[in-house]
Amino acid sequence: MSETKNDIAWERIFKKYRILEKIKKNGAFEITSGQINEFREARLMTKFDHRKNLPKIFEENNFSILPITRGSYLIAQFKAYHRLEEKETEIIKIPFPTYIESIDYENITSEAAALNCAYVSGILADFIEDEEMVPTVTGRMSSDAFCFYINTYSGSKFKVNVTNAQIEIDGGYEGLGTFSLIEAKNSLSDDFIIRQIYYPYRLWHDKINKKVKPIFMTYSNGIFTFYEYEFQDPEDYNSLTLVKQKKYSIEETEIGLDDIIEIYKRTKIINEPEVPFPQADSFERIINLCELLNESELTRDEITTNYDFDSRQTNYYTDAARYLGLVHKRKEGREVIFSLTEEGEKLFKLKYKPRQLKFVELILSHKVFREVFELCLKNGKMPDKHEVVKIMRYSNLYKIESEKTFYRRAQTIMSWIKWILELTRL
């Protein structure tokens, strides 16, 4: 896997300050922004929202980094991340107020816009279940002083003291009996760093008498997903438990099997592109990657560093989007840059239902996907991998040679067809 700029800079920092040796001796290492800035801007070197964003030297040693003051951090074998719970949840349809003209709910391109949309539509009120709820706090602020215990990979707990570290709150909403703090993301992920909801929680838990609700929200492809957590012990960083999860949509999401069959019948097969055949099982993540590129073009390093992809996945998922004709790849100097194609830009101007059906059309325009889909319709179930590989062998796929590669790519075909069929159940 290729190294990111963060990988290279952190290797140099660890070497200069003998961090591995000092953590082995003391259990943790405190580092300042000034020390980090000698190698690369600290702001870019310390923001690891997901475990996959961690530099190689952190990943290899089970290290994480937490801010403890305005300009210093602690590195240790902290269990700093929480895996998002995956639950089959019915999507609740919420109508958008007809009198609101200043928010385009069909074109949400930022976390702030997603939160505003969730508030004015009544989604937040439904999820939080508190009367007279209004937005009260947002933005950057100081954490004040507090201490907490965090689990480590050695099995022990480590005490951390925080004094005036910088925190950021995407949205704070106060009602008659609760104060809800929301961390909002417009990217999909497998996990998140608990600090993003824990530090704001500790600040306001110690300031007000009302119940403080830490909430994590994601918005992608027209769907709002909310997770409400509770810290069973306010001084225990890892004591969070899921209280509830719900999904919402403002746009019409109902798609019938007849809609998909109509697309299947009218779609023509195209020649296979000279792009690596996809190995990217989550079609939702492909859509989300394209959403991010719809906001701005991104370098390979930016995708790997800022979103829940490791460098191998960045290659796989950008290649999958290129395979569908949605993403363009170019090189400028030593940087590899990705942007939406004209086809991709047109697609993201569509409303939810026609956009999903366009994705279906793009998938089924490839012979191998079409034939696997036909087998599903004929037999009422997904064919096994052996059957899929048989179809792959005579479909003129680009540069698939080894047996293992055929079977790995077969999993992607099955996953994408499953995504198509599950559109009818949303």
TrEMBL record:
Domain DUF6997, first and last residues per copy: 77-249
Q: Which Pfam families match?
A: DUF6996, DUF6997, DUF7226
Q: Which organism is it from?
A: Acetivibrio thermocellus (strain ATCC 27405 / DSM 1237 / JCM 9322 / NBRC 103400 / NCIMB 10682 / NRRL B-4536 / VPI 7372) (Clostridium thermocellum)
List, for all copies, the residue spans of the domain called DUF7226. Answer: 285-424
Protein's UniProt name? Uncharacterized protein
DUF6996 domain sequence ranges: 7-75
